Amino acid sequence: MPFIPNTDKERQEMLERIGVKNFDELIAAIPEEIRLNKELNLPTAMSEYEVVKMMGELANQNVTTSSHTCFMGGGSYDHFIPSIVGAVIERPEFKTAYTPYQAEVSQGTLQAMYEYQSMICALTGMDVANASMYDGSTALAEACMMANAHNRKTEFVYAGTVNPNYRRVVDTITAGKNFTFHQAKLDDGTCDLERLRSLVSDKTSAVIVQQPNAYGNLEDVFEIEKIAHEKKALFITVINPISLGVLAAPGEYNADIVVGEGQPLGIPLSFGGPYLGIFACKNEFIRKMPGRIAGVTEDLEGKRGFVLTLQTREQQIKREKATSNICSNQGLFMLAATVYMAAMGKQGIKEVAEQSMQKAHYLAEQIKKIKGFKLLNDKPFFNEFLVIPPVPASQIIEEASKVAIMPGIDTSRFPECNQGLLVAVTEKRTIDEMNKFIGFLQKFAK
């Protein structure tokens, strides 16, 4: 072990303290067949300059939204990020800090948490929000466990199509809880209201809906809410925060718990993460909410101050009393979302939502005109839609890479989903980019 700067004497002293004679005895429990019994095949040493150059060459092989026009979505979207977001989160006091506990957390960090929570509440129309979670999928899993902690029921119903990645994460995190998940959806992926009525019972803990759903379609959330609450089940909504610039906020249709992926709020795509989990709920469920909540108060001198509050789910208390074992928030990206929302404001987020929706509808109408192409359905959608092409979606994706286009997601990777090409449009897409995409798709017309 020459890469550890210890002398033979020091190593022998450590082995004796452990209680073994030599290193071989220390690793005796490791099977011989999985040990590395040869020299590592390492390249020759390089200078710092050579390493930086090599890493740059490797990085340039990546396909990015700078080199390709992006029409991919499925939970992560290529939105414009104002430069002020990066300027703030790149500051070393933010970027290098870990998420601290109450005893050492700074007033600046607490204030950022408080402002983030306030903006999420304003955006979703909910009473209270926590200071973020890991990502949208884990937030949904936490919502299911929170619903179970509230009513002790173990049955859940998906109303319509929820992102299959989210569902897999939910299954993983709730494994061992004996939860049962049902689904009420039509062939086109939207909610089957009649089946939902038959599935929801006094045993149902919560009804879960994604708005817009996994195919970008809008669900009848007002009717779904009635069905859920008639049987006293909780109503969990999975949202795209940008869509709330034009769609009704979950608070308007009486959602109990709201979760979502915060990536559209000023966070780069970053090859899939790390991202930001949004979590908000009604006041009556605050004691069961996982995560961290910052509050505002006054000190003995009457000065405003910020504190962490309602820490019933933190590690420092008895674990059987905790809703969740998650005790950290995505602090850096929570700050990024806060800066983004503050910089964009109500009108800015509304404009992003309107442009994304209008451009998506233009592109969808043009794709429908191509012979052999059709949409999954003609129901309302936000900025995402499933195209059923006359050739496999994988073929389109392979050919599109040659002309610097990321055309969407091949849903055949999810056996439970309708097969096609999931296309998303954001405010960044120009008319020229969309027309180029349309021209490219025309070569597959049949």
Question: Tags for this entry?
Answer:
446 residues, alpha/beta, Aspartate Aminotransferase, domain 1, Aspartate Aminotransferase, domain 2, 2 domains, seven-stranded mixed sheet, four-stranded antiparallel sheet
Distance between the termini: 64 Å
Order of helices and strands: HHHEHHHEHEHEHEHEEEEEHEEHEEEH
- The total beta strand count reads 15
* Sheet with most strands: 7 strands, mixed
Produce a short descriptive summary.
This protein has 446 residues and is an alpha/beta fold.
Structure description:
By secondary structure, the protein is of the alpha/beta class. The protein folds into 2 domains: 69-80 and 351-444, Aspartate Aminotransferase, domain 1; 83-340, Aspartate Aminotransferase, domain 2, CATH 3.40.640. It is 35% helix and 15% strand. The chain has 13 helices and 15 strands. The chain has helices at 8-18, 23-26, 48-59, 83-89, 92-95, 107-124, 136-151, 164-173, 193-199, 221-230, 331-368, 393-400, 431-441, and strands at 69-70, 128-129, 155-159, 180-184, 204-211, 234-239, 257-261, 277-281, 293-298, 304-309, 374-375, 384-388, 405-406, 409-410, 421-424. The strands form 4 sheets. The protein has a 7-stranded mixed β-sheet with strand order 2-8-7-6-5-3-4, with helices on both faces. α4 runs antiparallel to α11. The longest helix has 38 residues, at 331-368. The model has no long low-confidence stretch (mean pLDDT 92).
